[in-house]
Amino acid sequence: MCHFNVMHAYLALAILTLEFESSTIVLITIGTVNIMISLKRQLPKIELHSHLDGSVRPSTAAEIAEEEGIELNCSDLRELTERMTAPPSCTSLVEYLERFELPLLLMQSRAALKRIAYETAEDAALENVRYLEVRFAPQLHTGRGLSIDEIVGAVAEGLSAAEAKYGHTVRIILVCMRHHAQADNEEVVRAASRLAGLGVVGVDLAGDEAGYPNELHEEVFGLANQLGLPITIHAGEAAGACSIRCAVEKLHARRIGHGVRLREDAELLQLMSEQRIPLEMCVISNVQTKAVPSMESHPIREYLDGGLAVTVNTDNPTVSATNQTREYENLARRFRFTERDFMKVAENGIEAAFADGELKGRLRAQFRQEWRELGLVGSGEAGESRA
After folding, report:
1. Closest CA to 324 of 109, 97, 42
2. What count of other Cβ atoms lies within 10 Å of the Cβ of residue 126?
């Protein structure tokens, strides 16, 4: 094992930027030791679409199961991991959603929820995510008697502990499930309004989009709108552009989760562009759920170049075996994203965040400072990109 004094290392520090397979690498020389760090990892990031139950570490799942006496019927950690991740042959969103059954079985106690929330925020921080919105459906965690307030409180406690350690900002979006009764979803909406002090900033609609279309949920999200809650809706993932139109026009969506099928309606696409309604795009997940038939057919490059407010997200880090850096590397390799493009999607993410103006201002200043330190912009604004 190699040890060195970090303070002394600054005396012999040199940084060289290289281009390697469309990926910028930062080469740090400390004495005679070379450390290559992907610039994609170093870039400051925004994550607006991350599901808590899709972010459980398999090792944590195994430990919680042992601690709480839950039988998983897995022979080892490898088998457990396979049950928690989408298979290469995944055929649909419905099959993809089956991967949540095991994690949800383990997310029924305050201790488990707090730990998983902490680790989710920690994993994001390690990818240089400076602002994170974590979403989850509290009604899916009531199986052992916890109330919605107790569930949100446990998650908030874990997220706050991670914030205190890593210095990033984490907020909560509460999810209404498409297959749940209207009364259950209205309870979630009222909880979101009531628990703003715990970091809840909005509500979402998720689940089987094709089987339970947006039209069934107008009253629930009408209530959310009346209560002044920011709304994001999963749409255009397993259903067509009409689902996106309904989310915007009838469910009061300020953002769209996924939205890959927006290009099926040119008029709606123009409307989304003009009104700057953001898309929470999750490229690796979209291929796995067959929202698009292949990586090459994903519209993210087309949408960004066309002026849409595109953001980059993971959706479900564990289920999709991804993280923000992997998403960035994939975009650079498959869609020729440059540092300028990554700066643009970060700016879009800050603007789209369910955050107040003061926090957005701090994030913009922080990102500009980090971009300057990475040599991506000059001494002025982010628009002076050298990429």
Report:
1. 42
2. 13
Contacts of residue 6, defined as CB under 8 A and 6 or more positions apart, other chains included, come to: none
Extract the runs of DSSP E, i.e. beta strands, from the chain. 13-20, 23-30, 33-38, 45-51, 129-136, 169-177, 200-206, 231-235, 255-258, 279-281, 310-312
Give me the CATH topology for the region 43-369.
TIM Barrel (3.20.20)
C-alpha 151/C-alpha 65 separation (Å) is 19
Euclidean distance between the first and final Cα of the chain, in Å?
Answer: 37
**Do residues 217 and 176 make contact, with C-beta atoms less than 8 angstroms apart?**
yes
> For 242-280, how does the pLDDT look when each residue is reduced to its tens digit (9 = 90+)?
999 999 999 999 999 999 999 999 999 999 999 999 999
Please state, in angstroms and rounded to a whole number, the distance separating the CA atoms of residues 313 and 238.
Answer: 18
For residue 204, pLDDT over 90 is answered with: yes
Amino acid identity at 241: A
* Statement: residue 24 has pLDDT above 70: no
Sequence spans of domains, the chain: 1-40, 43-369
Q: Write the Ramachandran bin of 90: left for phi over 0, alpha for psi from -120 to 50, otherwise beta.
A: beta
pTM above 0.85, yes or no: yes
- pLDDT for the residue 14: 30
Taking only the tens place, the pLDDT of each residue in 284-339 is: 999 999 999 999 999 999 999 999 999 999 999 999 999 999 999 999 999 999 99
The residues assigned a catalytic role are 237
Q: List the one residue out of 7, 43, 36, 34 whose CA is nearest residue 21.
A: 36
